[in-house]
Amino acid sequence: MEHLLEIRGLSIDLPRGRRQPPVKLVEGVDLNIDKKQNFGVVGESGCGKSITCSAIMGLLSYPLTVGEGSSIRFQKEAGDEVEITKLSPAELRKLRGKDISMIFQEPMTALDPMYTIEEQINETLRFHTSLSKAEMHQAALEMLQKVKIPRAEQILQDYPHHLSGGMLQRVMIAIALINNPRLLIADEPTTALDVTIQAQILDLMNELRESYDTSVIMITHDLGVIAETCEHVAVFYAGQVVEEASVEEIFHATAHPYTEGLLRSVTSLGGAKKELYTIKGMVPAAGNYGIGCRFADRCDRCMEICKTQAPALTEIAPGHKCRCWLHAGGAEKEAAV
Amino acid sequence: MSENNIILDVQNLRTYFPIKGGVVRKTVGHVHAVEGVSFQIREQETFSLVGESGCGKSTTGRTILRLIEPTGGKVFFDGEDLCALDRESMRKKRRDMQLVFQDPYASLNPRMTVRKLLEEPLETHFQLSAAEKEEQIQWIAGAVGINPEHLERYPHQFSGGQRQRISIARALITKPRFVVADEPVSALDVSIQAQILNLLMNLQKDLKLSYLFISHDLNVVRHISSRVGVMYLGRIVEMGDTEDVYQTPMHPYTQALLSAIPKRDPLEEKQRIRLEGDVPSPANPPKGCAFHERCSRCMDICREQFPETKEIAPGHCVACHLYD
């Protein structure tokens, strides 16, 4: 396996009772994450980006299940691969926090208010390593210094409510990285933070990624965060990947009308007081997609074929994939009909 | 611009919240949420307050509407001092000044239909017949883009963007002249944000509204406002025409804030001013300039003396010792 993580045909089902087929919240997602890659996942709320990453962590909550034929293969070490969808809960626990870690959106709710910062860092260490108490203290202290927390010795004894949001997010990053994971999933890590604190955290994550050789999956709705941190980007819409390319191509050789709409509706610095571009309508409800392209109703460049046939994710340039008839010969096909 | 088209004049507004402590809940100190804020809003203008969480921008907005009682200072609306009004006259005044809240999921009563939600402000402020009410509701529903067939629905049946339209309709149905919009788009997705911002700008033109727009999103603020005030720890540190402030920021905090915005293009090279540390606590603000602990250009005087606000270019004010 050449990639660190290979997702093939991932679908996530929401069962609707025995009589009806499940709603597919995510469908046909193929992704490759390379070693040391900074991979961005962008999309609006409800597009399936967060549950895709929960599936990678084996954290899908009831009643969601991974659909049939899905495969998530992860390379623990060179030559040691695991199929995450087939692991037992005990095996998953061993993987989480050691080989794959996660940072959540709300640092204020992700930490337990009843335990000190040191106890929460130690929890991860105790589970995955056999360090003595003194060694754990030393490791926690060093980790806090690496994430640039001042007065680390004192902060270790503090409770989460003593710290600000930015500090708590640093603690979260410390907990996530302390076992030197190969893959770090960051689910909107800066959405709850102020813009100056966001800049601090993104800088810190970029620095740490260099020194830890960790791959990062950055989930966000903010294209600015993507431009700032990522190398490769997948754009999600209505449970599917609609475009995947390097970050330069996403911004400068945009192929899918939805990506284009997202980029254009962002209020830009230096923008005049003119009408903002908007994508009309809203995201269709899951399970209510129709037979054609899922974006057809909102698309400015919708053709007849878009309403009747779903486009496939096709490679339009080396490493640049797009799910749109405009780039899959839809116009020619339509002319032929 | 002449003096007489100033619709709102805020002078040295202060709002303190008591900190209670001890067994008898004695007041042991004050949180200085708003500390001497002054600005003016002209008719049909959008003035924005921008700043990080805890800087007092929302408290300022609410104090102006007297949803929070001010500790000191004056607010003139159309030349009338709002702080001197009794409760009943203030309630009547609210017909002309309304508020749009941040979270459309929390600000609409889940047990009321859209029609009921829209009727409520009409019943509070006007005595109208059923036919007149219906006329108003149809008018506002059309203006903000709510399908009239959906008036019997409940808030949970709408998406976030639609709910924010209902919130806006509720604020505008009394035909106010001045609206405080407190982070009206920050809970929404990017593509929906653009729809709501366009709606707010179109309504401003059609209904001749003045906005006080409160936001932490610097891009949104630049897009919508004609003038902007940057707040830090309860004070306005810089104020001016939006383009002046964004193109030539004078205060070191404004400069850092603008440089912290994520770049819009992966190929863009950006020089970033890094701010260390966090905003100090408003319960215990530092001596001198509130920003001096994080400022890269801090001088001795900044630690001792609070900088007065000075006009350094026409309409462009800054509170910083660098420009003494």
Which structural traits does this protein have?
heterodimer, A: 337 residues, alpha/beta, Rossmann fold, eight-stranded mixed beta sheet, five-stranded antiparallel beta sheet, 13 helices, 34% helix, B: 324 residues, four-stranded antiparallel beta sheet, 12 strands, globular
Describe the structure.
The complex is a heterodimer of chains A (337) and B (324). With 337 residues, chain A is of the alpha/beta class. Chain A is built from 13 helices and 13 strands. In chain A, the strands form two sheets. Chain A has an eight-stranded mixed sheet with strand order 7-8-9-3-10-11-13-12, with helices on both faces. In chain A, strands 1, 2, 4, 5 and 6 form a five-stranded antiparallel sheet that branches. In chain A, helix 5 packs across helix 7 and helix 7 runs parallel beside helix 8. The longest helix of chain A is centred in the middle third of the chain and has 18 residues. Chain A is globular. In chain A, 43% of the residues are buried. Chain B has one domain: Rossmann fold (3-Layer(aba) Sandwich). Chain B is built from ten helices and twelve strands. In chain B, a hairpin with a 4-residue loop joins strand 1 and strand 2. In chain B, helix 4 packs across helix 5 and helix 5 packs parallel to helix 6. The chains are: A alpha/beta (337), B alpha/beta (324). Chains A and B meet through helix 8, helix 9, helix 10 and helix 11 of A and helix 6, helix 7 and helix 9 of B.
Topology:
The complex is a heterodimer of chains A (337) and B (324).
Chain A: E1 5-14, E2 23-33, E3 38-42, H1 49-57, E4 65-66, E5 71-77, E6 80-83, H2 89-95, E7 100-103, H3 107-110, H4 117-128, H5 133-146, H6 152-155, H7 165-177, E8 183-187, H8 195-212, E9 215-220, H9 223-229, E10 232-237, E11 240-246, H10 247-252, H11 257-265, H12 304-308, E12 314-317, E13 320-322, H13 330-336
Parallel strand pairs in A: 3-9, 3-10, 7-8, 8-9
Antiparallel strand pairs in A: 1-2, 1-4, 1-5, 5-6, 10-11, 11-13, 12-13
Chain B: E1 6-21, E2 26-42, E3 46-50, H1 57-64, E4 72-77, E5 80-81, H2 87-93, E6 97-100, H3 114-125, H4 130-144, H5 160-172, E7 178-182, H6 190-207, E8 210-215, H7 218-224, E9 227-232, E10 235-241, H8 242-247, H9 252-259, H10 300-304, E11 310-313, E12 316-318
Parallel strand pairs in B: 3-8, 3-9, 6-7, 7-8
Antiparallel strand pairs in B: 1-2, 1-4, 4-5, 9-10, 10-12, 11-12
Helix pairs in contact in B: 3-5, 4-5, 5-6
